[in-house]
C-alpha cells in the first residue's frame, strides 16, 4: 500500500469516526425529548426497540424485505420483519422524532420516513455510503422502486428520499454538502392535462358519474325487501341484521350533500345539526380533517329535508347503543355488570347456584347465554365464552349441578361477572385507543378528536354513528357486546369488494355497471362527484374549497370536466357583455363590438383563440404550446417592463388565481427586500449584463406584472360597485350556497 492510498484510507477512517460521533451527539441531544414523549405516552417504546408505538399504531424500523426475501407490507407479521442495523437505524429514529415533534399523523410519518428506509436499502445499509453520498446515488433509487411500485408511488418515495437528504442529512452534516434536487418528472402532471390518456385513467378511477344512480338502485331494492318482510313475505335479496345496511344508507346524504371525507362522517357529533336563527338556515358542524379548522357548513336547500330526516332516524336507531356507551363512561365495570341480568332464573336455579358456592348476583352459567351460536340480550355470545375466546378468562369453575327439578345434574361452566367486566373494559379501552389514536390506557385515555388545528372532547356516547362492535360485521348475527362508533373501514368494506368474506352492498343487491360488472365505489368518489357537480353549475372555486373543507386551489385537482367543457365556460365569459375579463383578449372583444363586428365573426375569432386554452395557477393561457413554445418560460406574470403577455387571460371572479398572484408578488418582493431594500429607486441603474442585476430585473418585471393583474381585479370590482339594481329579485339558489 503506497503513501497516497494510506493517506486516503486514513482520511476515510477519520470521516467514519466523525459520522459515528455526530450521530451519537444527535441522539444525546434528542434523548431528553424522547424521554419526555415516553413519560406523557406520546410514544411507547425504548430507543433500541425495533418499533415504536405512536397514536396507537406501530412505526417499524425494519428492513424493506422480510426474512423470506419478500417485500414488507402492512400485513407482514412482526416476527418476519428484520430489524435495521446500527447507524441507519439510529438515523431513521432521529428523522422519525423530527416528524413526531411536529405532531404529524402516524400515516403521514410512515410515508415521510419511507425515503430514509429505501435509501438505506439501496446502499445495503452500508455506513460508507453516507460519507460518499451524492445526487447520482439518489437518482439511482427509482430503478429499485420500479420493481415494486406504480409510477406515482415511485415518484413520491423518491421525492421523500430527496427531502430526507435535503432536510436532515445535509443540515446535520452527516453527508457531503450539496443541494439535492428532484430530477424525476412527476407523473401526476400528465394527469392534469385533459388531453392525455393519464388524465382519462385518473378520471375513470377517481370520478364515477353514476354513483348516485348505483346507490339509488341499491337503496330501492333494500326498501322493497323491507316492505316484503313487513308483509311476512320472502325478500328478494339476502337479509342482514338490523342497522347493518340502514345506518350506512343514512350516512350517504352526508357524503352527497356535503362531500365529507369518510373520517369526517364517522366523527360527526350527535348534535351536528344546528339552526342559524339570524339567517334562518340549517347548518352542519364538521370536525374537518387534513389540518383544516372545524367548520359549520350550510345545508343545501335541496338536501335539507333528507338531512334532517336522516339525522333523526340515526338518533332513533343508535339510542340503545348510545345509552350503553354513556353508562360505561359514568360507571365503568358496573355498567357492564348491570346488563348481564338473567330474568328467567327461578328460585330453584338460584338456590342450586348458591349451594355450589357462587352468589347468583355475581355469577352466571354459560348455558344461560344459550347454545353454540346463540346470544344473550346484552349481545354477549356463547362463542365468546368458549376456551381461548375473548372472555375465556372470566370462567372460574366447572360444577355439576341440577338447575331445575325436572332435569338431571349436568356439568356447567361458571362465569364471574366481575372478571368478565374487567376483560370487557380492557377491550373497550383498546377500542378507544384506536378511535382516538391514543397511547394512553384505561381511564387515562383523553376522549378527544385531535387535529393540528383543534382538539375536541367527544366520548363514544357523543358520536352520531354509534353502534356495537359487531353491528357492521357481516359474518355475525349479533350486534356484539360493547358500543363502538362506526369506523372508516366498516364503511369502505360496505361499498367495495375486498378480501373479507362479507359481500359488499352492490354484490348483495346485484348492482352492475353498463359493462355488466358488479359496481365498486370508493368513499372519496363522493367528493369528486359533488365537486364536479358544483363546477358544472358554475360555482366559484374559492367557495367550493371552503364548502368542501379544502385548502385554496385543491378544487382544480377535482375538476373532471373535459377540455371542451372548460373552454366553453371561458368562452361564455368573453361573450358576456357585463363581466367580460379585463385582459388582452377581453379588450380585443370590446374593440370588435365597438367597431360593429358581427356576433358570428366575434364567436369565430373567439373559438379559434380558445381552441388551445389551458389553465395556469394565475389565470388562463390561450397559446398553443405544442406549436409555439412559451417565450416567457411559463412565467405568465412577467411584464417585460409593463407589457402584459398577449396570451394570458384573467378571470376577475377567480379568487384562487388572485391568491396565487398575490403569493407570487409577495415571494419576489421578499427576494428583492434581501437583495435591494430600495429596489424601486435603483431599477434604472441596473446593469442587465450582470447575472445578479438580471435576476433583480426579472423580479421587478414579475412584481409589475402581478400589480397589473391585480388592477384588473380592482377595476372589475369598482365597475360592479357602480351598478345599481333597479329591481332586486330574491333568488333562493344564490342563498343556498
Record the SSE blueprint.
Layout: H1 3-39, E1 43-44, E2 51-54, E3 57-60, H2 86-101, H3 106-122, H4 128-131, H5 135-139, H6 141-145, H7 151-169, H8 188-191, H9 197-206, H10 211-230, H11 246-258, H12 262-266, E4 273-276, E5 281-286, E6 295-298, H13 301-331, H14 333-339, H15 347-355, E7 363-365, H16 366-369, E8 395-401, E9 410-416, H17 417-435, E10 448-450, E11 455-457, E12 466-468, E13 483-485, H18 488-495, H19 505-508, H20 525-536, H21 541-548, H22 563-575, H23 584-594, H24 599-610, E14 614-616, E15 619-621, E16 648-649, H25 655-675, H26 679-682, H27 691-722, H28 732-735
Antiparallel strand pairs: 1-2, 2-3, 4-5, 5-6, 7-9, 8-9, 10-11, 12-13, 14-15, 15-16
